[in-house]
Amino acid sequence: MPEGRPAIIDIHQDEVLTGEAVALDVQPVGFFLRALGVLIDMLIGVGILILFVLVTSWLGTLGLIDGAIWPILTIAVIVLVTVVIPTTVETISRGRSVGKLAVGGRIVRADGGATGFRHAFIRALVGAFELWFTLGAVAALVGAFTPRSQRLGDLLAGTYSERTRTPPLPVGGFDVPPPLREWAALADVARLPERLARRLAQFGQSAPNMQPGPRARVAASLAAEAAEHVSPVPQVDPETFIMGVVAVRRQRELRALELENARVVALTGATPTGPRGFPAR
Fold first, then answer.
1. Are 223 and 215 in contact (CB under 8 A)?
2. Lowest-confidence range among 82-86, 153-157, 204-208, 219-223?
3. What is the pTM for the complete model shown?
């Protein structure tokens, strides 16, 4: 990144910018996992309807239910299954349901915050049409063409399904090399392209086992690529520069994960987790 040029930070579709100007990489649940979660919730609803039919039929044979009120009971149970139960469950559980728990998802607002009654009610009301009356055809069609696999109810309510099961951080890491500690405190290290970040981390792990010649060539090539995302570029050897860049990005991304974890705890009251997903002590 040339000196004197303002840094441009790209906020991607799957990121949320916090008040501390940290872009959190919040991953939406994929299309097929969302479909599986919806199918699980709908099967539970079908089970409730079947149970209602069996119970009312049994009560009818005993003469305890007048046949004239069957249509009223049927409509009431359909409304209960399609609107009331989903709204209640999502409101109480802050965006979770049995299906969403099964696939590791949670309904959140478009800005990453927790949903409330209004969001759950809109989703359930629209879901009665796009999920039940059309057997999920409308939801599947809309979800296939939206970036976060949002169905029509999500678009109207301003929500999407966020992934709650994130892969653990890799074990180990690099500390900032001593010659770069002062530089690391002031350096502007932009978010690296995913492939470049992976190659830098792999080089840092495999460098001790490489031959000197190939090791120096690979380090010089990677350092030249990484220098485009760093300002100012320190006057050190390529390998030291790579180790410094990897360490700085790891520290900042770890801080972003800690901020996201604190946000989830504040919104949902969940148990705080450490950087690798274990309960914090």
1. no
2. 204-208
3. 0.55
CA pair distance 104, 6, nearest whole angstrom: 39
Same domain, 55 and 112: yes
Q: Does residue 234 have a cis peptide bond before it, meaning omega lies within 30 degrees of 0?
A: no
Per residue in 85-95, pLDDT (tens digit) is 999 999 999 88
Residues 133-174: pLDDT tens digits?
Answer: 999 999 999 999 988 889 999 999 999 998 886 555 444 456
Considering the domain boundaries, does residue 199 fall inside one?
Answer: yes
Residue 262 lies in a domain: yes
Angle at 110 between CA 109 and CA 113, to 5 degrees: 40
Residue of 25, 96, 100, 15 whose CA lies nearest to 255: 25
**Quick check: is 91 in a domain?**
yes
CA distance 194 to 181: 24
Which residue type, as a one-letter code, is found at position 211? Q
* Domain interval for residue 123: 31-163
Between vectors from CA 161 to CA 18 and to CA 35, what angle results, nearest 5°? 160
Query: What is the spatial distance between Cα 72 and Cα 86, in angstroms, rounded to a whole number?
Result: 21
Instruction: Check whether residue 127 and residue 181 sit in a common domain.
Output: no
Assess contact for 222 and 193: CB atoms under 8 A: no
Work out the average pLDDT over 237-251: 86
Contact call for residues 209 and 263 (beta carbons, < 8 A): no
